[in-house]
Design a protein that fits this description.
The chain is of the alpha+beta class. Helices cover 19% and strands 20% of the residues. The radius of gyration is 23 Å and the shape is globular. Bound molecules: heme C (HEC) (5 copies).
């Protein structure tokens, strides 16, 4: 149903999955109907992928963009820009424009690009998942567009675009903004509000967020945020991308920050049993049972509160840069279209140069307007 159902919308109001109660008082997730099941049979649509992959992190389920957050790595992938009303995380509402994507507008589906055959998905080069399907070497913008994609462009700067592609990832000029879940505090359960059923995390959701730019070569990466707090997820990376010599290009990322409990004894974030955290709002039990189940703590039963009082457990930030690949812009919406576009990089405004490691002498010339 999740992948092949056409009409399945989570079974709750507004395309959300909700908790229902049967005649015996037992709770269960809202489900698909028989009519929904009869729509299974065709290829996986973009809407089906977006049941899980809208924006990054979170818990809400919905295929139609009514949600503010969902699983892991999400995507902005709509044919036309639209205004989204969203909850910033604490019940406050805000509005932002979500950029369209040239491929969505051309009718290309997620599966057209991502299907690897045999029910596997092509992962990109900055995946943050432990489970892998396939990470093909030649899965990037150039595998379809070649290395001189601007040859037939009529833009006077077309030589600059192709030249700059030696050190800028295509996404750097072709994706302008990002959004979704930007911060999650996992250190205490927050009581459900509105029509929510479970305890949650304290979240911050923002759209129209400027990307952060870092050097990345397809394997470097996982620890870019190391000075501010590592992102210990994902098997790839573990080293910095460099300006020269390792094939890195300047690449746009979304910054995602999480606050977790860290135990110095086993050197990792404290894992939870989610039932205790989300259903009962009981952090202590969730942590005690979670660590016991992990096998990371070898000195008897784990006592979260006690270790916290000794200072062995403390709140710790994790900074995870997530690579941007969708929300692709063309024409005047791509950076560099005209001198104003060149100067969104070649000036001292904005955060483009922040993490790139250029010396102040170099910046003096690079930040000169074109
Ligand atoms: C035009 C082709 C295209 C379409 C359409 C497309 N993608 Fe992608 N996607 C890519 C490419 C190429 C990459 C990886 C780029 C790289 O690693 O350099 C990528 C990366 C990703 C990533 C990043 C994670 C990673 O492994 O690095 C996710 C998640 C993703 N796509 C999901 C989706 C979803 C969901 C949709 C539809 C809503 C979609 N994509 C539509 C081409 C596409
Ligand atoms: C039922 C929810 C669900 C659906 C539907 C779904 N995905 Fe995923 N996807 C996930 C989860 C969860 C992960 C993370 C797996 C992990 O952590 O190992 C993931 C991982 C990925 C990744 C790698 C991202 C990363 O962080 O490394 C890509 C790419 C991807 N999915 C593409 C797709 C495409 C394309 C579709 C539609 C054909 C799709 N997914 C449908 C839940 C879903
Ligand atoms: C699976 C092949 C494929 C991949 C991968 C792919 N594209 Fe495309 N792209 C296409 C197709 C097909 C079109 C539509 C062409 C058309 O309608 O003229 C397109 C259109 C575009 C356009 C608009 C062209 C125009 O004439 O206005 C841009 C810009 C673009 N892609 C950039 C990118 C970037 C950046 C990436 C990497 C994030 C990427 N593409 C990845 C196949 C791909
Ligand atoms: C320095 C910024 C920059 C970089 C880097 C860049 N592009 Fe572009 N690209 C542009 C701009 C701006 C346009 C729009 C030009 C116009 O419409 O006048 C464009 C247009 C395009 C088009 C449409 C071409 C046409 O004939 O109209 C495609 C396809 C494309 N880019 C793909 C890519 C790919 C693939 C890469 C990476 C290999 C890339 N771009 C790197 C700025 C850039
Ligand atoms: C996305 C950011 C970005 C955009 C947009 C951009 N540039 Fe650059 N440009 C750079 C970076 C980064 C370098 C330095 C690369 C290096 O390390 O050699 C650079 C270098 C240059 C250089 C050579 C070094 C110098 O100081 O003169 C020229 C010339 C240049 N850019 C012109 C342009 C023009 C013209 C445009 C608009 C068509 C443009 N750039 C758009 C990021 C950008």
């Amino acid at each position: 149903m999740l992948c092949h159902g056409i009409t399945y919308d989570g079974g709750g109001p507004d395309g959300l999955r909700t908790v229902k109660t049967d005649a015996n008082g037992t709770s269960y997730w809202s489900m698909a109907t028989l009519e929904d099941a009869q729509t299974v049979g065709d290829k996986v649509t973009t809407e089906a992928c977006k049941r899980c992959h809208i924006n990054t992190g979170g818990k809400v389920f919905s295929p139609y963009g009514t949600l503010s957050k969902a699983f892991k790595y999400g995507t902005d992938f709509v044919a036309e820009s639209y205004e989204l009303n969203y909850d910033t995380g604490d019940g406050t509402m805000a509005t932002a424009t979500i950029d369209g994507d040239v491929h969505a507008a051309a009718g290309i589906t997620c599966a057209d690009c991502h299907y690897a055959g045999e029910h596997k998905v092509k992962y990109g080069h900055h995946n943050v998942s432990w489970a892998h399907d396939i990470v093909p070497d030649d899965f990037n913008c150039s595998s379809c567009h070649g290395n001189a994609p601007h040859a037939s462009s009529e833009n006077a700067f077309k030589a600059t675009f192709d030249g700059h592609a030696d050190f800028l990832a295509c996404q750097t000029c072709h994706i302008r903004s990002t959004g979704g879940l930007v911060f999650r505090d996992l250190t205490e359960p927050i009581e459900p509000y509105g029509n929510q059923h479970f305890y949650g995390f304290r979240d911050r959701v923002e759209y129209g967020v400027e990307p952060e730019y870092r050097w990345f070569n397809g394997t470097s990466g996982g620890w870019e945020g190391v000075l501010e707090g590592p992102c210990p997820i994902g098997p790839r990376g573990g080293k910095w991308g460099y300006r020269r010599g390792d094939g890195s290009k300047i690449t746009p990322f979304k910054r995602y920050e999480a606050r977790v409990w860290f135990d110095i004894g086993f050197g990792n974030a404290v894992p939870y049993i989610l039932k205790d955290f989300l259903v009962d709002g009981d952090l202590e039990t969730a942590a005690d049972k979670g660590v016991d189940a992990s096998g990371w703590f070898s000195k008897g039963a784990y006592d979260f509160e006690f270790r916290k009082s000794l200072g062995l457990v403390f709140a710790f930030p994790m900074i995870c840069p997530l690579k941007l690949n969708h929300g692709v812009q063309s024409g005047k919406n791509a950076l560099g279209y005209d001198t104003a576009g060149c100067n969104s990089c070649h000036s001292s405004d904005g955060n483009f140069w922040t993490y790139l490691g250029y010396s102040s002498a170099e910046l003096q010339s690079l930040q000169k307007n074109r």
